[in-house]
Amino acid sequence: MSKEFVSFMRRRVSAATLDIPAPNKAEWRTILDAASRAADHGNLKPWRFRVYQGEARAQIGEIYWQHAKAEVPELPEDKKAGFVKKAYRAPAILMVYANVVEHPKVPRDEQIMATAAAAQQALLGLDAYGFGGIWRTGPACFTEQTKQLLGLAPNEEVVGLIYCGTPTQDLVYVGDTGIDDRLTFVDE
Ligand SMILES: Cc1cc2nc3c(=O)[nH]c(=O)nc-3n(C[C@H](O)[C@H](O)[C@H](O)COP(=O)(O)O)c2cc1C
């Protein structure tokens, strides 16, 4: 296994400002097929992917707006555009969600974790193809109202909205990850 791959992982950073191009459908297939090799207890493949692009991004904008209105019912309608616009911060949004099933050995949390692992693999795949992404969620992603708006089943949970495209700014390498403070070897 090439050590260059480890260096590639080490250089990974999120890209907050993104523009076209985003992956085309063939590139998405390749990237998400690779993401589907995430660690997966019970081979359940709990992850699901949905790519929103073009005007379909308004469907994501709608969840931001409806969540804001649920929080602050008196929000005037003329504020809607500002919320919907948030979904247009990148040319594509990859929604990664989990289809959670009852399983005697694989609890719900592990299925969500496997889905998060697939999301991280997707981020690496985007980078490898010369694109960039940033994983964004927030309270709007985790409500029943949002699940209904997005047409998710009761057993499905949003894990991440990954904004994707081509970085428009130079990405800044992270010099210190703080590993020395976070790593313990237990030898005996
Ligand atoms: C589960 C999860 C949710 C996140 N949600 C947001 C978010 O809503 N908004 C945001 O700006 N960053 C969010 N982030 C952080 C960014 O994706 C990113 O990791 C952060 O900006 C640090 O950049 P880096 O990945 O280059 O270190 C989230 C990360 C994770 C793992």
From TrEMBL:
<dbReference type="InterPro" id="IPR026021">
    <property type="entry name" value="YdjA-like"/>
</dbReference>
<feature type="binding site">
    <location>
        <position position="37"/>
    </location>
    <ligand>
        <name>FMN</name>
    </ligand>
</feature>
<keyword id="KW-0288">FMN</keyword>
<feature type="binding site" description="in other chain">
    <location>
        <begin position="135"/>
        <end position="137"/>
    </location>
    <ligand>
        <name>FMN</name>
    </ligand>
</feature>
<dbReference type="InterPro" id="IPR052530">
    <property type="entry name" value="NAD(P)H_nitroreductase"/>
</dbReference>
<dbReference type="Pfam" id="PF00881">
    <property type="entry name" value="Nitroreductase"/>
</dbReference>
<dbReference type="InterPro" id="IPR000415">
    <property type="entry name" value="Nitroreductase-like"/>
</dbReference>
<keyword id="KW-0521">NADP</keyword>
<keyword id="KW-0560">Oxidoreductase</keyword>
<protein>
    <recommendedName>
        <fullName>Putative NAD(P)H nitroreductase</fullName>
        <ecNumber>1.-.-.-</ecNumber>
    </recommendedName>
</protein>
<feature type="binding site">
    <location>
        <position position="41"/>
    </location>
    <ligand>
        <name>FMN</name>
    </ligand>
</feature>
<keyword id="KW-0285">Flavoprotein</keyword>
<comment type="similarity">
    <text>Belongs to the nitroreductase family.</text>
</comment>
<feature type="domain" description="Nitroreductase">
    <location>
        <begin position="21"/>
        <end position="165"/>
    </location>
</feature>
<dbReference type="InterPro" id="IPR029479">
    <property type="entry name" value="Nitroreductase"/>
</dbReference>
<feature type="binding site" description="in other chain">
    <location>
        <begin position="12"/>
        <end position="14"/>
    </location>
    <ligand>
        <name>FMN</name>
    </ligand>
</feature>
<keyword id="KW-0520">NAD</keyword>
<dbReference type="GO" id="GO:0016491">
    <property type="term" value="F:oxidoreductase activity"/>
</dbReference>
